[in-house]
Amino acid sequence: MTLKDTLQETYTALSANKVRSGLTILGIVIGISSVIAMVSIGTGASNSISSSINSLGSNLLQISPGAQRTAGGFGASAGRGNAKTLTQADADAISSNVTGVVAVASEVSGRYQITAKGTNTNTTVNGVSSNYPEVRNIEVAEGSFISDTQNNSASKVAVLGPTTRDDLFGENAEGVVGQSIRIKGMEFKVIGVTVAKGGSGFSNADDIIYIPTKSAQRFLSGDQYLTTIDVQTTDADAMTQVQADVTALLLDRHNISDATQADFSVLNQADLLSSASSITTTLTYLLAAIGGISLLVGGIGIMNMMLTTVTERTREIGLRKAIGARKSDISKQFLIEAIMLTLIGGTIGIALGWLISFGVNLTGLVATSVSLPSIVIAFGVSALIGIVFGYYPARRAAGLNPIEALRYE
Amino acid sequence: MIEIKDITKTYGSGDNAFQALKGVSFTINDGEFVAIMGPSGSGKSTLMHILGCLDTPTSGSYFLDAKDVSKLNDEELADIRKDKIGFVFQAFNLLPRTTVLRNVMLPLVYAGVGEKEREERAIESLTSAGLTSTHFLHRSNELSGGQIQRVAIARALVNQPSLILADEPTGNLDSKTGEIVLGTFQKLNREHGRSVILITHEPEVAAYAERIITLRDGEILSDEKNRSRKHAHYDA
Question: Given a cut of 50, is residue A201 above it in pLDDT?
Fold first, then answer.
């Protein structure tokens, strides 16, 4: 029996009961399309998280006070928020002693109540050095950023993030530069507004106020410590070396001999990226598993339909055997029927999944991306499901005794 | 030529064993029209299954065209059925919702005959079975009982078998269409020299054969030439 004949038999058999074939195919369509759509959403989420991490600044090391983190993990470290171990002198030492460093920016951050003209908000106030914009990819939309002079003199000036500006002065308010705001009751003059970075995910990078480091230390935290030191390296290759040098330098400066007892931690942006991507990969797997379950249910639907078909067509099978069909002819016919169902379902499912992913993209929540491998895998899986779930019914059909099959009522 | 010797068939084993055939022997020459007659339980269905290579005997030998087919496995039996045997069943067993032509071509599909030749041979056997081209593209469920059974005969003929086995071919038909079907067998036997074995429990049907083998309780009761053979007023 040639493939063409088998396909023609398959077409006849499947079109004989269009509603049933259609519903069975629908099961596979739902399974495959949900796998495609879910994976595309997962991939999209993962891409958007990596790009937002990259937007923090390139080739960045972040030094925070507190215990060393476990590699790549997000383990809680006791008292990290309160630990005060880093100083401006540490930052200056890194800048002057470690090679491969382009810039070192210092940060003193905290959350405070802000008021302006009767409105108020509670947001992050970040005391930063003048080179912070270049290290962290921040651009000023209006006015100017904090200068070294303002920093050294601990001026009461502030640069607003666009979200904070909206909260305090109204949506896209004009002429904010020159206005006054009160942080912790003290009056600061607004000298600039930054360009929106489009915060997504867990934190909004635009809901922030920048003031000079010295001002933050003097007026807000009241001590000489830093909450973060940002180190920008010359290139990605230098990061590991710089990380090691910075660690050694700070251990030495803090008189700590055992690296595991370090009172600071150096977070490599690559570490952050890898831990974030491990989370999103898990998310993608989870979503794929949900799709996979519906695919499995679809596969069981195929098996159910094929078993019903084999029972209904017992006499036909008996006849085919009587006129000379071999076992392999019969099993091939039923197997190809099952594979055909899954391939049709798979094709429609891929199209539908792509449409769903496109629709999700349009809503602007996640920039989904349908990858070629996920299509290839979905197609392969649908064929495989046809084989797996079609095998048993096909074997049952092929194994029927022709005499009994012909007598079957 | 068909030659069977001391064919027995036992179902079950031990105390539950039931012997359906208790040593049956006969020879049927090419071109003979034989009826195997007997009441239900006589073993005629079992004998038909063995003659049709759907089953193998417990003991004894069966030579079909000088080849011993009594000890073949399932796949070898399938090949014998494909090449040497054409079946006609009481229940017709045509594929529903499928054209007459495709139904008749089906055995050739399994025999691996090319598409063009398939159609030519199918048309040829449909014509021999007394059907005209107006029927060829009808679906099998659109025909009358007599026409359906003649399509089934055409299907049995299409692989040019050594033997046509008809199992109660008139059982589902009224006597008039039954006679037309029996007439078709007689014509095929007379004009094309096909061996026909007719399995029936009705003496009136067996009367159309030239030789009648009567079975009872798994043994041959009689095997004789039919002296009062009926001839169908065949008008297709």
Answer: no
Q: Phi and psi at residue A126, in whole multiples of 5°? A: -115, 115
The whole-angstrom separation of Cα A375 and Cα A377 is: 5
Separation between Cα atoms, residue A84 and residue A241, nearest integer Å: 25
CB within 8 Å: A327 and B159:
no
Residues in chain B with CB shorter than 8 Å from the CB of A323 are: 81-82, 86-87, 106-107, 110, 155, 159
- The reply to whether A7 touches chain B by the CB within 8 Å rule is no
* Contact residues, chain B to chain A, C-beta under 8 Å: 49, 52, 54-55, 74-75, 78-79, 81-83, 86-87, 89, 91, 93, 95-98, 106-107, 109-112, 155, 159
All residues of chain B having their beta carbon less than 8 Å from the beta carbon of residue A316 are 93, 95
Question: Which CA distances in Å does B164 have to B167, B173, B235?
Answer: 10, 19, 21
Closest residue on chain A to B92 (Cα): A319
**Residue in B74, B79, B93 closest to A319 by CB:** B93
**B80 to chain A nearest CA, in Å?**
7
The model's pTM is: 0.72
Dihedral sign, Cα of residue A312, residue A318, residue A323, residue A324 = positive
Which one of B75, B94, B95, B118 would you mutate to disrupt binding with A, by most A Cβ within 10 Å of its Cβ? B95
Burial of residue A389, with CB atoms counted within 10 A of its CB: 0-12 exposed, 13-18 middle, 19 or more buried: buried
Q: Which residues are registered as beta bridge partners of A209?
A: A125, A160
**Position A83 confidence tier, pLDDT thresholds 50, 70, 90:** low
Contact status of A315 with chain B (Cβ, < 8 Å):
yes
Its ipTM equals: 0.91
Q: Is-contact A281 A273, C-beta < 8 A?
A: no
Q: Do A1 and B87 touch (CB under 8 A)?
A: no
pLDDT band at residue A198 under the 50/70/90 scheme: low
Residues 6+ apart with CB under 8 A from A372: none
Show contacts of B18-25: CB within 8 Å, 24+ apart. Answer: B19/B218, B20/B46, B20/B218, B21/B46, B21/B47, B21/B50, B21/B57, B21/B218, B22/B217, B22/B218, B22/B219, B23/B60, B23/B219, B24/B60, B24/B215, B24/B218, B24/B219, B24/B220, B25/B60, B25/B220
Q: Is A235's Cβ below 8 Å from some Cβ in B? A: no
pLDDT in tens, A237-254: 888 889 889 999 999 898
Report d(CA A320, CA B94) in Å as an integer.
Answer: 10
Question: Angle CA(A80)–CA(A82)–CA(A85) in degrees, nearest 5?
Answer: 80
CB A129 within 8 A of CB A150: no
Residues in Cβ contact with A377 at an 8 Å cutoff, skipping those fewer than 6 apart? none
Q: Yes or no: say if A266 and A61 are a contact pair by the CB < 8 Å rule.
A: yes
Residue B199: enclosing H or E segment and its boundaries?
A: strand B195-200
Alpha-carbon distance of A201 to B66, in angstroms, equals 84
User: Which stretch of DSSP H or E encloses residue A363?
Assistant: helix A327-363
Amino acid identity at A257: S
pLDDT digits (tens, 9 = 90+) for A125-137: 999 999 998 888 8
